[in-house]
Amino acid sequence: MRRGPPELLKPLLKFESIKNDHFPYVDVSHSVGLYVEGLTVTFDGFRALDGFNLYVDDGELRCLIGANGAGKTTLMDVITGRTKPDSGEVYFGQNINLIGKTETEIAQLGIARKFQNPTVFEHQTVLSNLELALHGKRGIFDTLVGDFSSDDLDRINEVLAIIGLKDRIKSPAGSLSHGQKQWLEIGMLLSANPRLLLVDEPAAGMTRGEAERTAELLKDLAGDRTIIVIEHDMEFIRSIANKVTVMHQGQMLAEGSMTEIKKNPSVLEVYLGEEY
Ligand SMILES: Nc1ncnc2c1ncn2[C@@H]1O[C@H](COP(=O)(O)OP(=O)(O)OP(=O)(O)O)[C@@H](O)[C@H]1O
Ligand SMILES: [Mg+2]
């Protein structure tokens, strides 16, 4: 499984054009979207991540599963710069070393994270929430005075179509269902057009129908960007039907399709149990 450090992989093209002008150049010419190797994080001597390896292709939609405490959220904390690892490597593409970067620097590279609970502005309309997300960098004043370019409006319309909330633009976010709030927050993240989207337990608290729509949404969003989704809901993971990584005690236990994972004896023993 070890692929060697990404800096040893020579770029295929020396002068590949920069695809996205507002983020620094991320070299994905060898299809490396995210590269994690030997990652160890300890809390008071307890190893939340223990030599963890993960290789995600550019544009892939990867599912991450594992029992409570397996280290899934800790992994996202490290990728986003919230937690400093004891050791290990994390590369975004094959050229950007994320270790040592701050949360802000990492966000500015085009890495966005969706926490479990929706954090939308409840008293603002759906449209205002998206406008605020889009204008975060320029400050709230521009948003309040409605200083929008036609590009901004195009972007907002595009995002509204993706998240399926076009008919709710004037509704206060607080009046949306739990699932719709989650989609709105995903939409707010999308307004910055991230290249890597990390999503922690999106289906929690959703109705079956909402979870199914969320699976479809994430499938649609992958390809143009890399997505890593953590989820306990196996029906949701099955409906995404992509490559699954099983974590156990801070390590990678197994990887493969849901069908392969379901047959893996060590996975059955420690996680899935007989009900799956
Ligand atoms: N800041 C912290 N300080 C101390 N221990 C922590 C901290 N963050 C996480 N842990 C511990 O590290 C282990 C892994 O936690 P983590 O939140 O990554 O698990 P998880 O796989 O996301 O679990 P869940 O499915 O319940 O969300 C747990 O035992 C947790 O108690
Ligand atoms: Mg967690």
**What is the overall shape?**
globular
Helix segment tally: 10
CATH superfamily of the domain at 6-111 and 226-272: P-loop containing nucleotide triphosphate hydrolases
Q: Please provide the ordered H/E string of secondary-structure elements.
A: EEEHEEHEHHHHEHEHEEHH
Fraction of residues in helices?
Answer: 25-40%
What value does the average pLDDT take? 86
Structure write-up:
Strand 4 (87-92) and strand 5 form a beta hairpin. With 276 residues, this protein is an alpha/beta fold. It has helices at residues 72-79, 103-108, 126-134, 140-144, 150-163, 178-190, 208-221, 234-240, 258-263, 265-272, and strands at residues 32-43, 46-57, 61-65, 87-92, 96-97, 111-114, 196-200, 226-230, 244-248, 251-256. It contains ten helices and ten strands. The strands form two sheets. The protein has a six-stranded mixed β-sheet with strand order 6-7-8-3-9-10, sandwiched between helices. It has a domain at 6-111 and 226-272: P-loop containing nucleotide triphosphate hydrolases (Rossmann fold), CATH 3.40.50. It binds adenosine-5'-triphosphate and magnesium ion (MG). Magnesium ion binds at residues 72-73. Magnesium ion is lined by residues 72-73.
